[in-house]
Design brief:
Jelly Rolls; Immunoglobulin-like; 4 domains; 11 helices; elongated
Length: 928
Amino acid sequence: MHTDPSHFLRSYRPWPMAHGRLTVVALATSMLFAVHLGHAQTQGGASSDLAVELQRRYEAQQAEIARYLAAHPEVQREVIRDGVLYRIVRIGADGQPIYIKSKGSSVGARSNVESGQLIKADSLYPGGSLGVNITGQNMVAGIWEPGVPRATHELLSGKVTIEANQLGSTTDSARNHATHVTGTIIGKAGLSGDGASAQGIAYSATSRNWDSDNDTAEMYAAGLAVNGPVVSNHSYGYANDNTIPVWQFGAYDSESRAWDQVISSLPYYQPFVAAGNEQQSNGNPSKGGYDLMTGASAAKNVVTVGAVNADKTMSSYSNWGPTDDGRLKPELVARGTGINSATAASDTSYSGSGADSSGTSYATPAVTAGALLLQQYYRARYELSYMRSETLRALMFGTAEDLGRPGPDHQFGWGLLDVQKAASVIKQRTTPQGFASCTKDYLASELRGAVIDELEVNPTNNGAAACYRSLYARGGVPLVINVAWNDDAGPEQTATNPVDDTSSRVIYNFDIEVYEVATGNTYRPWKIPDMAHRTDNATLSAAQFDDMGQNFKQVIIANPVANTEYRVMFRKHSSSPAATKNLSLVVTGTSISNARAEIRGTPAVAGTPQVGQSLSGSYSYWDFEDDTEGSSTYRWVWVTPAGRGVTRTTIAGATARNYTPVGTDQGKVLQFCVTPVAAGGNTGAGTEVCSGSTTTVTASALVNASCGSAANVASAFLPAANLCSTGTAGAVSAGASTWSWACSGSGGGTASACSAPYSAVAVGGAVGAIQAATSNNWQIRSANSGFVSPPAAAPNNVTFPQGATKVVLDSGTPGTSTTVTLRFSSIPAGAQLYKYGKENGLGDVNKWFVYPATIDTAAGTVTYTLTDGQKGDNDWTQNGVIDDPVALGAPAGVADVNGVPSLSEWGQIMLGLLLVAASALTWRRQRT
């Protein structure tokens, strides 16, 4: 334990920076685009007005600082005192400067990894207890700091985008701090040494980094952007020493109000703010470590984070609440003592070697990273938008591990963030009911263990019970009901208000009661101790609206009756505005009745609905318990209209994912249907889901569509047309080649036939197709094989009407054999295969000689075997390469032959056909 809290860091600069310098970069996920694009379109003029207000506010503050410094030349804006950065951020109402300070302390450095383990973030990692792979992939964290990080550090390289014109403080303290914080959130995995233990909690995520000078304006602009962050980290704050007046401790000042303006305008954006480190040495010593929330940490809609030690005990430096109006602060805690992360001294320096390593500055990024993972998991699991910020808060507060006094308190807040428990609630979420529905009776059969509902409601003032949710308890575990909302910016406290002014700063006051239907028992939320009773235990509210001034409420029913209905009643106080407000409801401990496998989305059908053409069904399987898919069942159906619905008639025998329509399907409309079944857990079949309807199944083409796609010709040399499939047989030319189709048969049946002979005008005439067996690893070298001019004249009384065929084989096992087949449209009687090369060994001369071959004149094939290093291999060397021309010789006076490609067999065989040389030769001959 350390004894000098001033050495612990929550560096804070609460005021915006000039220029409104948002630089849009393409780092966020596509889902971020969808969320924020939709949100940005709803802001209209209000968004412009707030942006102007924030920018004017900043510029006025900067002008005040400039005037003060001009009048007091002996004062510097930024100084280092005992290694601590102090920087003027604005001039207070009393005319005196307000400072930030920035420094941590080295206290038995541990690691980012252990910090993540304490909040159970590793439950989402591969191999974790939840059985998922959530590490921050394609997610981006916003980070504001007094300085900017060392982006080239090995822990951060390639993962950090520093926004344009972000200068910040250039002191070692500020740069180390920014580097350390960024590393805790997104530090990469896979390093060794100190780098391994410094792995970030959301280690696959990236960051966008700003300096803190113009934070509220930049946060607002970033949140409006389609690629803006959904969470951001702010490990900085007022110095909280005697440089600020006492009234400002716990006050909802202009800075607190500005942050609430930003957050209440951005429904999916959640900032996390460090509580500060002045618990034992501060400018408000009479409170014994309490009443230390200042600036942004006192805002209503932020999550303020305190720090605990590795054993979950309270640290000796973390600041405590409440705010002057009695709001709970901090809300969450995480480990802040002894955190090893990157520093800015070099690309391989770490705080574990003696640099700063403790403070609420280092607890806050753990919570920020945990929130980022939860948002990723929610979006990935349900393919929805992210959670609204108030939903995220309700989830995190409602599942935190209670520490300190029973229930909420002003040291630990709602407790230690528990990512595993929060993620389990996401996993157990019952299908939500949408924004507009104020009242919903959940049936026991609908519930899966938890409820996450985002509501747009307007309960009648004065406590009418017209808005509620009914649900059923599981029993054996507590039923916990949490409700949160983003409150509008409240009335600002100033120096003219009394110190510790208890006037509420909350605009909308909602309350909940939970009613046990069978017995009439009523359960109410916690009542948070106010400033005067800050050290007391929390109690339960004794009546409706007994705890005004909080924008989060929680009811715990410790021993609910299993399968009993409980009704959650929403109420709005009469002092609240009449306008509708969004509420987020998170309930844990409901019954689990509907845990079967599901199909997410709608199955799809690929392929052409035509007789003889294959159709393929696809779908996205999902299971509540994350069980793997078992023996899901399929069927293809005919669909006919029936009133407002349809009638589905099962096609006999069509029970696989693939189906080829037959003649009886012609004129019908088809659907693919799947009933999901899990391999384990709740193995009962889920609900059948069917695809959309296909277009009407048509008759097949004259022959099936494979005709014309000769398997033995490289696809690059085939024409795009397929005249048989269109039923208009004829010829198509492509470059120097001409393909001609001859089609017969119909319906794709066995009587169908087609051919696609093609010709290219080359030196030797028409060309054929080449193929080689793939045994012993032999393959045709396509780039060097093809039909060429004969390297020498044909023997006496022999003609080469086809020209020569150059066959280059490689990659074969040395000394082994392969079989080559040439295909022609017709072969004259008496034809023989001739080989060119050294017939009798290396001492022989190159010449044409007859080579053994099997010639099938009816099929139009010439097949022969070549052995590496033997006759027929011109280099007579066992080297896995055979390179010799051949030619089909016909007796002089016999008609020419025409080449034809093979149509279908041996589809996996490597093929080669080069027509470029033939085309060039043809062009040259035509000109001469």
